[in-house]
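Progress note, project year one: complex with N-oxalylglycine.
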Amino acid sequence: MSITVAPITPSFVAEISGIDLAQLLKPGDRDAIEAAINHYAVVVFRGQKLTDAQQIDFSAQFGPIHSSAQRARHTGIKHRLERTELADISNLDGDGKVLDANARRRLDWLANRLWHTDASFRAIPGALSLLYAHVIPDQGGDTEFADLRAAYDALPDSTRKQLEGLIAIHSIWHSRGQLDVDRSRYTEQELASLPPVPQRIVRTHPGSHRKTLYLAAHASHIEGMPVPDGRLLLMDLMEHATRPPFVHAHKWREGDLVIWDNRCTMHRARPFDTTKVRDLRRVTTRDVASTLEQAA
Ligand code: OGA
Ligand code: MN
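Model obtained:
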């Protein structure tokens, strides 16, 4: 069986079928998947059966994996997943029980409900994220994706000119601060371990050579601009980029694996009854360098 790439939306999301991701990929299939990601930015595989190790092995064929081996956050708690290449995108504690409403890890995880792109708060940010669904609640909990290339294309020339060369400062503490005022939930060590980093607001996507916005809830202000002006500009751009024409909602089924390209998209989780289990696990590959060292 050979793989089929079928558009779900004309130019943003595609479904790839005819492939078992638990098996090592044939080189031609790997390249076809990469080409589909470069063209669409979000690709969906249905009905996969993957162990944690198989998800990691599949992901490793698309780049070096960001691991939490030198964990800076959530230290000193029991972790459910053994492999440090996996981010636990569930509402479960170390023993597999649904997190209490006030559990620190739950409050931190709620920041996934803000529009963001993974790891833009790291000097070398995320490239691809590969999220696999183990358990999905009956209602809610979609993931929405925004196409930042299409959002860039739709900007007026004057705004594109205004954005040329601008650099935003990203910090995980900025996104957390939008939901929670209590910084004392984090230790001094945690706060110091992830200092703010600069990222371009407009970049050229290396795989498609398309210009794209690069935005996230982590983006706090703009270098060389008064903070309120920069923040308002970022808020306007976020509002623009998440208008319905640029957004697609993925309705999860168990066994779905979705890959998105963090370099040219944003995403957010939608609400669900968090007393019900939702268990997804994510691998994220590392970009090659800071956006400052890549094409504007
Ligand atoms: C993520 C993420 C959204 C969701 O895995 O990076 O933001 O719907 N997930 O769980
Ligand atoms: Mn995310």
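Residues 112, 116, 118, 267 surround manganese (II) ion (ligand 2) (CB under 6 Å).
The first helix runs from residue 27 to 40.
No further modelling is planned for this target in the current period.
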